[in-house]
Amino acid sequence: MPAPNMREPVVGIDLGTTNSAVATVEGGRPRIIPNRAGSRLTPSMVGFTPQGERLVGEAAASLAETHPSRVAWATKRFLGRRFSPELAQEARGTLPFTLVSGPSGDTRMRLADQLLPLTQVSAMVLGELKADAEAFFGRAVRKAVITVPANFDDGQRQATKEAAQVAGLQVLRLVNEPTAAAVAYGLTKGFEGRALVFDLGGGTFDVSILQVQSGVFEVVATGGDPVLGGEDFDHRIVQWLLAQLPPDRVEEVARDTVSMRRLKVAAEQAKRQLTHEQEATISVVELGDLAQGRGGLELSTALTRSFFETLCEPLSRRCLTVCEQVMAASGLTPDAVDAVLLVGGMTRVPLVRRLVTEFFAKAPATGLNPDEVVALGAAVHADELASQSGAALLIDVASHSLGVEMQGARVRRLVEKNTSIPSMAREVFLPSTSGQKEARIRIVQGEGEYTRDCRVLGEVLLKELPRAERGDVPLEVHFELSSDGTLSVKATSLRTGAMESLKVEARPNLQQQELERLEREQAEHAEAGGGAQAEENFRRLAERAEKFLQVLRRSVQENATEDALAALQRAEALVAEARERMSAGAVADAAARAELTRRLSLLVAGR
Ligand code: AMP
Fold first, then answer.
1. Domain 230-311 CATH class label
2. Atom of ligand 1 nearest to the CA of 16
3. Which of 86, 313, 463, 597 is deepest in the core (most CB within 10 A)?
Protein backbone atom coordinates (compact mmCIF):
# COMPACT_ATOMS: atom_id res chain seq x y z
CA MET A 1 0.00 0.00 0.00
CA PRO A 2 1.44 3.44 -0.87
CA ALA A 3 2.22 5.74 2.02
CA PRO A 4 -0.80 8.01 2.68
CA ASN A 5 1.02 11.13 1.54
CA MET A 6 1.91 9.48 -1.76
CA ARG A 7 -1.72 9.09 -2.74
CA GLU A 8 -3.08 11.69 -5.09
CA PRO A 9 -4.81 14.30 -2.94
CA VAL A 10 -8.62 14.32 -3.00
CA VAL A 11 -10.78 17.09 -1.62
CA GLY A 12 -14.35 17.78 -0.57
CA ILE A 13 -15.89 21.00 -1.84
CA ASP A 14 -18.91 22.83 -0.52
CA LEU A 15 -19.87 25.04 -3.45
CA GLY A 16 -22.17 27.32 -1.47
CA THR A 17 -24.57 30.10 -2.41
CA THR A 18 -22.75 32.71 -0.32
CA ASN A 19 -19.49 31.04 0.67
CA SER A 20 -17.57 28.01 -0.47
CA ALA A 21 -15.04 25.86 1.34
CA VAL A 22 -12.62 23.08 0.52
CA ALA A 23 -11.45 20.38 2.90
CA THR A 24 -9.35 17.24 2.98
CA VAL A 25 -8.65 14.35 5.33
CA GLU A 26 -5.28 14.31 7.02
CA GLY A 27 -4.20 11.74 9.55
CA GLY A 28 -7.75 10.36 9.56
CA ARG A 29 -9.35 13.71 10.39
CA PRO A 30 -11.10 16.12 8.08
CA ARG A 31 -9.74 19.66 8.00
CA ILE A 32 -10.50 22.84 6.14
CA ILE A 33 -7.88 23.97 3.64
CA PRO A 34 -7.38 27.72 4.07
CA ASN A 35 -7.41 29.73 0.85
CA ARG A 36 -4.32 31.56 -0.38
CA ALA A 37 -5.35 34.65 1.54
CA GLY A 38 -5.43 32.56 4.74
CA SER A 39 -9.27 32.37 5.19
CA ARG A 40 -11.23 29.21 5.77
CA LEU A 41 -14.19 30.36 3.67
CA THR A 42 -14.13 31.84 0.18
CA PRO A 43 -17.00 34.12 -0.84
CA SER A 44 -18.75 32.61 -3.89
CA MET A 45 -18.25 35.87 -5.75
CA VAL A 46 -16.78 36.65 -9.15
CA GLY A 47 -16.00 40.11 -10.48
CA PHE A 48 -14.13 41.98 -13.18
CA THR A 49 -12.13 45.12 -12.51
CA PRO A 50 -12.53 48.09 -14.88
CA GLN A 51 -9.21 46.89 -16.40
CA GLY A 52 -10.86 43.55 -17.15
CA GLU A 53 -9.03 41.46 -14.59
CA ARG A 54 -10.96 38.57 -13.10
CA LEU A 55 -11.33 38.47 -9.31
CA VAL A 56 -12.78 35.62 -7.26
CA GLY A 57 -13.56 35.29 -3.55
CA GLU A 58 -12.48 37.93 -1.05
CA ALA A 59 -10.93 40.09 -3.76
CA ALA A 60 -14.28 40.12 -5.60
CA ALA A 61 -16.06 40.96 -2.33
CA SER A 62 -13.75 43.97 -1.92
CA LEU A 63 -14.43 45.05 -5.50
CA ALA A 64 -18.17 44.94 -4.75
CA GLU A 65 -17.67 47.77 -2.24
CA THR A 66 -16.64 50.17 -5.00
CA HIS A 67 -18.06 48.58 -8.16
CA PRO A 68 -21.12 46.54 -7.17
CA SER A 69 -22.30 46.18 -10.75
CA ARG A 70 -19.05 44.44 -11.69
CA VAL A 71 -19.50 41.61 -9.17
CA ALA A 72 -21.77 38.57 -9.23
CA TRP A 73 -22.84 36.72 -6.12
CA ALA A 74 -25.47 34.16 -5.06
CA THR A 75 -25.63 32.94 -8.69
CA LYS A 76 -26.08 29.35 -7.50
CA ARG A 77 -29.78 30.15 -7.19
CA PHE A 78 -29.96 30.17 -10.99
CA LEU A 79 -27.33 27.55 -11.86
CA GLY A 80 -28.57 24.79 -14.16
CA ARG A 81 -32.05 26.26 -14.53
CA ARG A 82 -33.40 26.75 -18.05
CA PHE A 83 -33.79 30.39 -18.97
CA SER A 84 -37.33 31.78 -18.89
CA PRO A 85 -38.75 35.28 -18.53
CA GLU A 86 -40.00 34.24 -15.07
CA LEU A 87 -36.48 33.27 -14.06
CA ALA A 88 -35.14 36.65 -15.22
CA GLN A 89 -37.92 38.32 -13.24
CA GLU A 90 -37.05 36.28 -10.14
CA ALA A 91 -33.42 37.37 -10.49
CA ARG A 92 -34.41 41.01 -10.82
CA GLY A 93 -36.49 40.72 -7.67
CA THR A 94 -33.62 39.48 -5.53
CA LEU A 95 -30.30 40.43 -7.12
CA PRO A 96 -29.11 43.17 -9.43
CA PHE A 97 -28.42 40.78 -12.30
CA THR A 98 -29.65 40.66 -15.84
CA LEU A 99 -30.14 37.09 -16.91
CA VAL A 100 -30.40 36.17 -20.57
CA SER A 101 -30.83 33.00 -22.57
CA GLY A 102 -27.85 31.11 -23.98
CA PRO A 103 -27.95 29.42 -27.41
CA SER A 104 -29.41 26.18 -26.03
CA GLY A 105 -31.77 27.83 -23.56
CA ASP A 106 -29.29 27.79 -20.68
CA THR A 107 -29.09 30.78 -18.34
CA ARG A 108 -26.35 33.40 -18.70
CA MET A 109 -25.69 36.67 -16.98
CA ARG A 110 -24.49 40.05 -18.11
CA LEU A 111 -21.60 41.14 -15.97
CA ALA A 112 -19.23 44.02 -16.68
CA ASP A 113 -19.79 43.92 -20.46
CA GLN A 114 -19.41 40.16 -20.59
CA LEU A 115 -21.97 37.46 -21.14
CA LEU A 116 -21.18 34.58 -18.81
CA PRO A 117 -22.86 31.19 -18.62
CA LEU A 118 -23.71 30.63 -14.94
CA THR A 119 -21.85 27.35 -15.23
CA GLN A 120 -18.72 29.37 -15.92
CA VAL A 121 -19.27 31.57 -12.85
CA SER A 122 -19.40 28.42 -10.68
CA ALA A 123 -16.37 27.05 -12.54
CA MET A 124 -14.39 30.17 -11.63
CA VAL A 125 -15.19 29.64 -7.93
CA LEU A 126 -14.29 25.94 -8.19
CA GLY A 127 -11.08 26.86 -10.03
CA GLU A 128 -10.14 29.18 -7.18
CA LEU A 129 -10.72 26.45 -4.57
CA LYS A 130 -8.73 23.99 -6.68
CA ALA A 131 -5.82 26.44 -6.84
CA ASP A 132 -6.05 27.00 -3.06
CA ALA A 133 -5.90 23.25 -2.48
CA GLU A 134 -2.95 22.95 -4.88
CA ALA A 135 -1.10 25.70 -3.01
CA PHE A 136 -1.78 23.81 0.22
CA PHE A 137 -0.62 20.40 -1.05
CA GLY A 138 2.12 21.79 -3.29
CA ARG A 139 0.87 19.52 -6.09
CA ALA A 140 -1.97 19.11 -8.58
CA VAL A 141 -5.46 18.36 -7.27
CA ARG A 142 -7.83 16.76 -9.76
CA LYS A 143 -10.43 14.80 -7.83
CA ALA A 144 -13.23 16.07 -5.65
CA VAL A 145 -16.52 15.25 -4.03
CA ILE A 146 -18.75 18.27 -4.54
CA THR A 147 -21.91 18.93 -2.57
CA VAL A 148 -25.25 20.12 -3.93
CA PRO A 149 -28.56 21.01 -2.26
CA ALA A 150 -30.70 17.90 -1.81
CA ASN A 151 -33.45 19.45 -3.92
CA PHE A 152 -31.23 20.16 -6.94
CA ASP A 153 -32.82 18.55 -9.98
CA ASP A 154 -30.86 16.69 -12.63
CA GLY A 155 -30.30 19.86 -14.70
CA GLN A 156 -28.75 21.64 -11.72
CA ARG A 157 -26.61 18.60 -10.88
CA GLN A 158 -25.49 18.39 -14.49
CA ALA A 159 -24.53 22.08 -14.45
CA THR A 160 -22.46 21.50 -11.30
CA LYS A 161 -20.64 18.63 -13.03
CA GLU A 162 -20.01 20.82 -16.08
CA ALA A 163 -18.64 23.59 -13.86
CA ALA A 164 -16.27 21.06 -12.30
CA GLN A 165 -15.17 19.91 -15.75
CA VAL A 166 -14.44 23.49 -16.80
CA ALA A 167 -12.42 23.94 -13.61
CA GLY A 168 -10.39 20.82 -14.39
CA LEU A 169 -11.88 18.70 -11.60
CA GLN A 170 -13.06 15.13 -11.84
CA VAL A 171 -16.19 14.67 -9.71
CA LEU A 172 -15.83 11.49 -7.67
CA ARG A 173 -19.43 11.98 -6.62
CA LEU A 174 -21.99 14.70 -6.07
CA VAL A 175 -23.27 14.40 -2.51
CA ASN A 176 -26.29 16.10 -1.02
CA GLU A 177 -25.33 18.86 1.39
CA PRO A 178 -27.35 17.49 4.37
CA THR A 179 -25.86 14.06 3.82
CA ALA A 180 -22.36 15.53 3.90
CA ALA A 181 -23.22 17.37 7.13
CA ALA A 182 -24.40 14.15 8.72
CA VAL A 183 -21.25 12.33 7.57
CA ALA A 184 -19.13 15.08 9.17
CA TYR A 185 -21.06 14.64 12.41
CA GLY A 186 -20.15 10.94 12.30
CA LEU A 187 -23.74 9.76 11.93
CA THR A 188 -22.54 6.94 9.72
CA LYS A 189 -20.84 5.47 12.78
CA GLY A 190 -23.18 4.03 15.37
CA PHE A 191 -26.09 6.47 15.13
CA GLU A 192 -29.51 4.91 14.52
CA GLY A 193 -32.55 7.06 14.01
CA ARG A 194 -33.75 10.20 12.32
CA ALA A 195 -31.67 13.33 11.93
CA LEU A 196 -32.98 16.66 10.77
CA VAL A 197 -30.52 18.94 9.01
CA PHE A 198 -31.47 22.60 9.46
CA ASP A 199 -29.49 24.59 6.90
CA LEU A 200 -29.86 28.34 6.95
CA GLY A 201 -27.27 29.92 4.69
CA GLY A 202 -26.84 33.29 3.08
CA GLY A 203 -29.59 32.94 0.49
CA THR A 204 -31.55 29.76 1.08
CA PHE A 205 -33.12 27.64 3.76
CA ASP A 206 -33.13 23.86 3.39
CA VAL A 207 -34.48 21.15 5.63
CA SER A 208 -33.71 17.49 5.16
CA ILE A 209 -34.68 14.50 7.20
CA LEU A 210 -32.24 11.60 7.10
CA GLN A 211 -32.92 8.08 8.26
CA VAL A 212 -29.88 6.21 9.48
CA GLN A 213 -30.29 2.51 10.06
CA SER A 214 -27.73 -0.29 10.25
CA GLY A 215 -25.17 1.90 8.51
CA VAL A 216 -27.54 2.77 5.65
CA PHE A 217 -28.04 6.37 5.13
CA GLU A 218 -31.15 7.73 3.44
CA VAL A 219 -32.52 11.21 2.78
CA VAL A 220 -36.20 10.57 3.41
CA ALA A 221 -37.58 14.07 2.92
CA THR A 222 -36.41 17.45 1.81
CA GLY A 223 -37.95 20.87 1.60
CA GLY A 224 -37.04 24.47 2.01
CA ASP A 225 -37.46 28.04 0.97
CA PRO A 226 -35.17 29.10 -1.88
CA VAL A 227 -35.47 32.77 -1.00
CA LEU A 228 -34.98 32.78 2.74
CA GLY A 229 -31.52 33.28 4.18
CA GLY A 230 -29.05 35.62 5.83
CA GLU A 231 -29.52 38.17 3.04
CA ASP A 232 -33.13 38.64 4.18
CA PHE A 233 -32.00 39.29 7.75
CA ASP A 234 -29.49 41.83 6.42
CA HIS A 235 -32.25 43.38 4.34
CA ARG A 236 -34.41 43.93 7.43
CA ILE A 237 -31.54 45.75 9.12
CA VAL A 238 -30.93 47.83 5.99
CA GLN A 239 -34.61 48.86 5.91
CA TRP A 240 -34.37 49.87 9.56
CA LEU A 241 -31.21 51.90 8.80
CA LEU A 242 -32.86 53.64 5.85
CA ALA A 243 -35.74 54.67 8.07
CA GLN A 244 -33.27 56.62 10.20
CA LEU A 245 -32.12 58.86 7.35
CA PRO A 246 -33.71 62.26 6.71
CA PRO A 247 -37.01 61.35 4.99
CA ASP A 248 -36.31 63.53 1.95
CA ARG A 249 -33.10 61.61 1.15
CA VAL A 250 -34.23 58.01 1.71
CA GLU A 251 -35.32 57.45 -1.86
CA GLU A 252 -32.07 58.79 -3.30
CA VAL A 253 -29.96 56.53 -1.06
CA ALA A 254 -32.20 53.52 -1.81
CA ARG A 255 -31.61 54.05 -5.54
CA ASP A 256 -27.84 54.34 -5.25
CA THR A 257 -26.20 50.92 -5.58
CA VAL A 258 -22.93 51.89 -3.88
CA SER A 259 -24.76 53.42 -0.89
CA MET A 260 -27.00 50.37 -0.61
CA ARG A 261 -23.98 48.09 -0.75
CA ARG A 262 -22.36 50.07 2.09
CA LEU A 263 -25.51 49.76 4.19
CA LYS A 264 -25.71 46.04 3.46
CA VAL A 265 -22.09 45.45 4.49
CA ALA A 266 -22.64 47.42 7.71
CA ALA A 267 -25.86 45.49 8.42
CA GLU A 268 -24.16 42.16 7.92
CA GLN A 269 -21.27 43.11 10.18
CA ALA A 270 -23.70 44.21 12.89
CA LYS A 271 -25.62 40.94 12.59
CA ARG A 272 -22.40 38.97 13.07
CA GLN A 273 -21.36 41.11 16.02
CA LEU A 274 -24.72 40.50 17.69
CA THR A 275 -23.97 36.78 17.72
CA HIS A 276 -21.36 37.46 20.41
CA GLU A 277 -22.39 40.80 21.83
CA GLN A 278 -25.54 42.47 23.09
CA GLU A 279 -25.08 45.63 21.07
CA ALA A 280 -23.48 46.63 17.79
CA THR A 281 -22.53 50.14 16.72
CA ILE A 282 -23.17 50.90 13.09
CA SER A 283 -21.48 53.74 11.30
CA VAL A 284 -21.74 54.35 7.55
CA VAL A 285 -20.33 57.34 5.73
CA GLU A 286 -20.72 58.78 2.23
CA LEU A 287 -24.33 57.91 1.49
CA GLY A 288 -26.41 59.63 -1.16
CA ASP A 289 -26.74 59.90 -4.89
CA LEU A 290 -23.05 59.20 -5.44
CA ALA A 291 -23.42 58.86 -9.20
CA GLN A 292 -24.47 62.55 -9.27
CA GLY A 293 -21.71 63.51 -6.85
CA ARG A 294 -24.28 64.07 -4.12
CA GLY A 295 -23.03 62.08 -1.12
CA GLY A 296 -22.09 63.43 2.23
CA LEU A 297 -24.75 61.72 4.30
CA GLU A 298 -23.58 59.86 7.40
CA LEU A 299 -25.38 57.40 9.58
CA SER A 300 -24.38 56.42 13.08
CA THR A 301 -26.54 54.27 15.30
CA ALA A 302 -26.61 51.25 17.62
CA LEU A 303 -28.54 48.03 17.24
CA THR A 304 -29.22 45.87 20.28
CA ARG A 305 -29.53 42.13 20.08
CA SER A 306 -33.03 42.26 21.46
CA PHE A 307 -34.19 44.75 18.82
CA PHE A 308 -32.49 42.70 16.09
CA GLU A 309 -34.45 39.70 17.37
CA THR A 310 -37.70 41.65 17.22
CA LEU A 311 -36.88 42.67 13.63
CA CYS A 312 -35.99 39.17 12.55
CA GLU A 313 -38.18 36.83 14.58
CA PRO A 314 -40.78 36.50 11.79
CA LEU A 315 -38.03 35.35 9.39
CA SER A 316 -36.73 32.79 11.89
CA ARG A 317 -40.26 31.51 12.50
CA ARG A 318 -40.69 31.01 8.76
CA CYS A 319 -37.91 28.41 8.99
CA LEU A 320 -39.87 26.52 11.62
CA THR A 321 -43.02 26.60 9.49
CA VAL A 322 -41.01 24.99 6.68
CA CYS A 323 -39.75 22.32 9.14
CA GLU A 324 -43.35 21.64 10.15
CA GLN A 325 -44.41 21.26 6.51
CA VAL A 326 -41.58 18.89 5.64
CA MET A 327 -42.26 16.78 8.71
CA ALA A 328 -46.02 16.76 8.12
CA ALA A 329 -45.46 15.57 4.54
CA SER A 330 -43.68 12.51 5.94
CA GLY A 331 -46.09 12.06 8.86
CA LEU A 332 -43.56 13.15 11.48
CA THR A 333 -43.74 15.38 14.53
CA PRO A 334 -40.80 17.22 16.13
CA ASP A 335 -40.39 14.56 18.82
CA ALA A 336 -39.73 11.94 16.12
CA VAL A 337 -36.42 13.64 15.35
CA ASP A 338 -33.49 12.12 17.24
CA ALA A 339 -30.82 14.64 16.29
CA VAL A 340 -30.87 18.15 14.88
CA LEU A 341 -27.77 19.26 12.95
CA LEU A 342 -27.11 22.91 12.22
CA VAL A 343 -25.62 23.95 8.91
CA GLY A 344 -25.01 27.41 7.42
CA GLY A 345 -23.47 30.52 8.92
CA MET A 346 -26.87 31.89 9.96
CA THR A 347 -27.39 29.10 12.48
CA ARG A 348 -24.82 30.84 14.66
CA VAL A 349 -27.43 33.52 15.38
CA PRO A 350 -28.56 32.96 19.01
CA LEU A 351 -32.24 33.62 18.16
CA VAL A 352 -32.19 30.87 15.52
CA ARG A 353 -30.57 28.40 17.93
CA ARG A 354 -33.07 29.25 20.67
CA LEU A 355 -36.10 28.80 18.43
CA VAL A 356 -34.78 25.49 17.06
CA THR A 357 -34.10 24.19 20.57
CA GLU A 358 -37.63 25.14 21.71
CA PHE A 359 -39.28 23.71 18.61
CA PHE A 360 -37.60 20.28 18.77
CA ALA A 361 -37.35 20.28 22.56
CA LYS A 362 -33.70 19.30 22.24
CA ALA A 363 -30.42 21.08 21.81
CA PRO A 364 -29.03 20.90 18.27
CA ALA A 365 -25.55 19.51 17.59
CA THR A 366 -23.12 22.41 17.47
CA GLY A 367 -19.73 20.71 17.74
CA LEU A 368 -18.60 21.67 14.24
CA ASN A 369 -18.54 25.07 12.59
CA PRO A 370 -21.88 25.29 10.76
CA ASP A 371 -20.28 26.93 7.73
CA GLU A 372 -17.58 24.28 7.45
CA VAL A 373 -19.48 21.11 8.23
CA VAL A 374 -20.61 20.38 4.65
CA ALA A 375 -17.09 20.67 3.21
CA LEU A 376 -15.73 18.49 6.04
CA GLY A 377 -18.30 15.76 5.32
CA ALA A 378 -17.54 15.94 1.60
CA ALA A 379 -13.84 15.48 2.40
CA VAL A 380 -14.58 12.42 4.55
CA HIS A 381 -16.59 10.88 1.75
CA ALA A 382 -13.96 11.77 -0.87
CA ASP A 383 -11.34 10.08 1.26
CA GLU A 384 -13.50 6.97 1.67
CA LEU A 385 -14.08 6.77 -2.07
CA ALA A 386 -10.42 7.31 -2.92
CA SER A 387 -9.15 4.77 -0.43
CA GLN A 388 -12.10 2.44 -1.03
CA SER A 389 -12.21 1.93 2.71
CA GLY A 390 -15.80 0.82 3.20
CA ALA A 391 -17.37 4.04 2.00
CA ALA A 392 -20.62 4.80 3.76
CA LEU A 393 -23.68 3.75 1.82
CA LEU A 394 -25.37 7.00 0.96
CA ILE A 395 -28.84 6.51 -0.40
CA ASP A 396 -30.69 9.26 -2.14
CA VAL A 397 -34.29 10.08 -2.85
CA ALA A 398 -35.96 11.30 -6.02
CA SER A 399 -35.85 15.08 -5.76
CA HIS A 400 -39.00 15.49 -7.89
CA SER A 401 -41.93 13.31 -8.89
CA LEU A 402 -41.80 11.59 -12.28
CA GLY A 403 -44.72 10.59 -14.40
CA VAL A 404 -46.33 10.44 -17.83
CA GLU A 405 -48.73 12.75 -19.54
CA MET A 406 -52.30 11.47 -19.83
CA GLN A 407 -55.29 12.75 -21.70
CA GLY A 408 -56.03 16.43 -21.27
CA ALA A 409 -52.34 17.05 -20.46
CA ARG A 410 -52.88 15.68 -16.96
CA VAL A 411 -49.93 14.02 -15.25
CA ARG A 412 -50.00 10.50 -13.85
CA ARG A 413 -47.15 10.06 -11.35
CA LEU A 414 -45.19 6.84 -11.35
CA VAL A 415 -42.41 7.82 -8.97
CA GLU A 416 -43.33 10.16 -6.14
CA LYS A 417 -40.96 12.83 -4.88
CA ASN A 418 -38.82 11.55 -1.96
CA THR A 419 -39.03 7.89 -3.07
CA SER A 420 -35.67 6.36 -2.24
CA ILE A 421 -33.56 5.52 -5.26
CA PRO A 422 -32.67 3.29 -7.05
CA SER A 423 -36.33 2.71 -7.70
CA MET A 424 -38.58 1.05 -10.25
CA ALA A 425 -42.23 1.53 -11.16
CA ARG A 426 -44.53 0.12 -13.82
CA GLU A 427 -48.02 0.86 -14.89
CA VAL A 428 -50.36 -0.27 -17.65
CA PHE A 429 -52.15 2.42 -19.62
CA LEU A 430 -54.90 2.32 -22.17
CA PRO A 431 -53.98 5.45 -24.09
CA SER A 432 -56.34 6.87 -26.62
CA THR A 433 -54.83 5.61 -29.83
CA SER A 434 -58.14 5.55 -31.65
CA GLY A 435 -57.51 5.36 -35.31
CA GLN A 436 -53.77 5.99 -34.88
CA LYS A 437 -50.89 3.64 -35.45
CA GLU A 438 -48.61 5.21 -32.88
CA ALA A 439 -48.60 6.30 -29.25
CA ARG A 440 -46.54 9.17 -27.97
CA ILE A 441 -45.66 8.98 -24.29
CA ARG A 442 -44.38 12.16 -22.71
CA ILE A 443 -42.25 11.86 -19.61
CA VAL A 444 -42.61 14.69 -17.12
CA GLN A 445 -40.91 15.74 -13.91
CA GLY A 446 -42.49 17.89 -11.23
CA GLU A 447 -45.29 18.21 -8.73
CA GLY A 448 -47.91 19.91 -10.93
CA GLU A 449 -51.18 18.27 -11.90
CA TYR A 450 -50.80 19.33 -15.53
CA THR A 451 -47.86 19.08 -17.94
CA ARG A 452 -47.63 22.85 -18.22
CA ASP A 453 -46.67 23.04 -14.53
CA CYS A 454 -43.96 20.39 -14.90
CA ARG A 455 -40.82 19.88 -16.93
CA VAL A 456 -41.01 17.63 -19.99
CA LEU A 457 -38.00 15.31 -19.92
CA GLY A 458 -38.61 13.51 -23.20
CA GLU A 459 -40.92 11.36 -25.27
CA VAL A 460 -41.16 7.69 -26.15
CA LEU A 461 -42.79 6.97 -29.48
CA LEU A 462 -44.32 3.53 -30.02
CA LYS A 463 -44.99 2.96 -33.73
CA GLU A 464 -46.67 0.29 -35.79
CA LEU A 465 -49.46 -0.28 -33.32
CA PRO A 466 -52.53 -2.10 -34.63
CA ARG A 467 -55.28 0.31 -35.49
CA ALA A 468 -57.72 -0.04 -32.69
CA GLU A 469 -60.60 1.48 -30.96
CA ARG A 470 -60.02 4.05 -28.30
CA GLY A 471 -58.37 2.60 -25.23
CA ASP A 472 -58.01 -0.79 -26.80
CA VAL A 473 -54.22 -1.09 -26.89
CA PRO A 474 -52.74 -1.66 -23.46
CA LEU A 475 -49.26 -0.24 -23.05
CA GLU A 476 -46.94 -0.94 -20.19
CA VAL A 477 -44.67 1.89 -19.09
CA HIS A 478 -41.71 0.95 -16.97
CA PHE A 479 -39.59 3.54 -15.11
CA GLU A 480 -36.19 2.82 -13.66
CA LEU A 481 -34.47 5.53 -11.67
CA SER A 482 -30.81 4.74 -10.99
CA SER A 483 -28.89 5.71 -7.87
CA ASP A 484 -27.34 8.68 -9.66
CA GLY A 485 -30.78 9.92 -10.65
CA THR A 486 -30.74 8.81 -14.31
CA LEU A 487 -34.18 7.78 -15.54
CA SER A 488 -34.69 4.95 -18.05
CA VAL A 489 -38.14 4.53 -19.54
CA LYS A 490 -39.44 1.51 -21.42
CA ALA A 491 -42.81 1.40 -23.14
CA THR A 492 -44.18 -1.91 -24.41
CA SER A 493 -47.34 -2.66 -26.35
CA LEU A 494 -48.86 -5.60 -24.54
CA ARG A 495 -50.67 -6.55 -27.73
CA THR A 496 -47.74 -6.66 -30.17
CA GLY A 497 -44.75 -6.80 -27.85
CA ALA A 498 -43.29 -3.75 -29.63
CA MET A 499 -40.94 -1.97 -27.27
CA GLU A 500 -39.23 1.42 -27.22
CA SER A 501 -36.97 2.84 -24.59
CA LEU A 502 -35.49 6.14 -23.63
CA LYS A 503 -32.67 7.06 -21.29
CA VAL A 504 -33.24 10.50 -19.90
CA GLU A 505 -29.79 11.93 -19.45
CA ALA A 506 -29.62 15.34 -17.86
CA ARG A 507 -29.61 17.80 -20.74
CA PRO A 508 -26.21 19.46 -20.98
CA ASN A 509 -26.27 23.15 -20.19
CA LEU A 510 -23.38 23.93 -22.47
CA GLN A 511 -22.46 22.49 -25.84
CA GLN A 512 -19.36 20.31 -25.87
CA GLN A 513 -17.40 22.81 -27.95
CA GLU A 514 -18.08 25.66 -25.58
CA LEU A 515 -17.29 23.48 -22.58
CA GLU A 516 -13.91 22.63 -24.04
CA ARG A 517 -13.18 26.27 -24.86
CA LEU A 518 -14.04 27.37 -21.31
CA GLU A 519 -11.93 24.53 -19.94
CA ARG A 520 -8.93 25.75 -21.96
CA GLU A 521 -9.48 29.36 -20.85
CA GLN A 522 -9.75 28.33 -17.20
CA ALA A 523 -6.56 26.25 -17.46
CA GLU A 524 -4.73 29.23 -19.01
CA HIS A 525 -6.00 31.48 -16.24
CA ALA A 526 -4.78 28.99 -13.59
CA GLU A 527 -1.45 28.69 -15.36
CA ALA A 528 -1.01 32.46 -15.31
CA GLY A 529 -1.19 32.36 -11.51
CA GLY A 530 -3.87 35.00 -10.98
CA GLY A 531 -1.97 38.28 -11.57
CA ALA A 532 -2.92 41.20 -9.31
CA GLN A 533 -5.35 39.05 -7.33
CA ALA A 534 -2.51 36.69 -6.36
CA GLU A 535 -0.48 39.63 -5.07
CA GLU A 536 -3.48 40.97 -3.18
CA ASN A 537 -4.15 37.53 -1.67
CA PHE A 538 -0.55 37.29 -0.64
CA ARG A 539 -0.68 40.64 1.16
CA ARG A 540 -3.78 39.50 3.06
CA LEU A 541 -2.06 36.25 3.98
CA ALA A 542 1.04 38.09 5.20
CA GLU A 543 -1.19 40.35 7.36
CA ARG A 544 -2.92 37.29 8.80
CA ALA A 545 0.44 35.70 9.54
CA GLU A 546 1.53 38.86 11.44
CA LYS A 547 -1.68 38.75 13.47
CA PHE A 548 -1.25 35.05 14.10
CA LEU A 549 2.24 35.78 15.41
CA GLN A 550 0.88 38.33 17.89
CA VAL A 551 -1.65 35.80 19.20
CA LEU A 552 1.09 33.21 19.51
CA ARG A 553 3.32 35.65 21.44
CA ARG A 554 0.49 36.39 23.90
CA SER A 555 -0.25 32.73 24.44
CA VAL A 556 3.45 31.96 25.02
CA GLN A 557 3.59 34.77 27.60
CA GLU A 558 0.72 33.08 29.44
CA ASN A 559 1.97 29.54 29.08
CA ALA A 560 5.62 29.23 28.11
CA THR A 561 5.99 25.50 27.51
CA GLU A 562 8.99 24.24 25.58
CA ASP A 563 6.84 23.24 22.61
CA ALA A 564 5.09 26.63 22.53
CA LEU A 565 8.45 28.47 22.61
CA ALA A 566 9.79 26.34 19.75
CA ALA A 567 6.62 26.98 17.71
CA LEU A 568 6.94 30.71 18.34
CA GLN A 569 10.56 30.72 17.20
CA ARG A 570 9.68 28.86 14.01
CA ALA A 571 6.79 31.25 13.31
CA GLU A 572 8.95 34.33 13.97
CA ALA A 573 11.65 33.07 11.64
CA LEU A 574 9.16 32.38 8.87
CA VAL A 575 7.37 35.72 9.18
CA ALA A 576 10.73 37.55 9.25
CA GLU A 577 11.83 35.68 6.12
CA ALA A 578 8.52 36.52 4.41
CA ARG A 579 8.93 40.21 5.28
CA GLU A 580 12.46 40.25 3.94
CA ARG A 581 11.64 38.43 0.74
CA MET A 582 8.58 40.57 0.14
CA SER A 583 10.64 43.71 0.34
CA ALA A 584 13.07 42.11 -2.10
CA GLY A 585 10.25 41.71 -4.63
CA ALA A 586 9.09 38.13 -3.97
CA VAL A 587 5.42 39.24 -4.12
CA ALA A 588 5.65 39.88 -7.83
CA ASP A 589 7.56 36.68 -8.56
CA ALA A 590 4.95 33.92 -9.00
CA ALA A 591 7.19 30.99 -8.04
CA ALA A 592 8.61 32.67 -4.91
CA ARG A 593 5.12 33.78 -3.92
CA ALA A 594 3.71 30.25 -4.33
CA GLU A 595 6.39 28.79 -2.11
CA LEU A 596 5.92 31.41 0.61
CA THR A 597 2.13 31.14 0.35
CA ARG A 598 2.30 27.46 1.08
CA ARG A 599 4.45 27.91 4.18
CA LEU A 600 2.52 30.91 5.50
CA SER A 601 -0.86 29.25 5.01
CA LEU A 602 0.32 26.20 6.95
CA LEU A 603 1.40 28.57 9.72
CA VAL A 604 -1.94 30.43 9.74
CA ALA A 605 -3.77 27.08 9.71
CA GLY A 606 -1.91 26.30 12.96
CA ARG A 607 0.46 23.64 11.69
P1 AMP B 1 -23.34 30.31 4.41
O2 AMP B 1 -24.12 30.46 3.14
O3 AMP B 1 -23.57 29.08 5.14
O4 AMP B 1 -21.90 30.66 4.26
O5 AMP B 1 -23.95 31.43 5.38
C6 AMP B 1 -23.64 32.74 5.25
C7 AMP B 1 -24.61 33.54 6.09
O8 AMP B 1 -24.31 33.33 7.47
C9 AMP B 1 -24.45 35.02 5.81
O10 AMP B 1 -25.72 35.62 5.77
C11 AMP B 1 -23.67 35.48 7.02
O12 AMP B 1 -23.96 36.83 7.32
C13 AMP B 1 -24.16 34.57 8.12
N14 AMP B 1 -23.19 34.44 9.21
C15 AMP B 1 -21.95 33.90 9.15
N16 AMP B 1 -21.34 33.96 10.35
C17 AMP B 1 -22.21 34.55 11.20
C18 AMP B 1 -22.18 34.90 12.58
N19 AMP B 1 -21.10 34.67 13.32
N20 AMP B 1 -23.28 35.49 13.10
C21 AMP B 1 -24.35 35.74 12.34
N22 AMP B 1 -24.46 35.43 11.05
C23 AMP B 1 -23.40 34.84 10.46
1. alpha beta
2. 2
3. 597
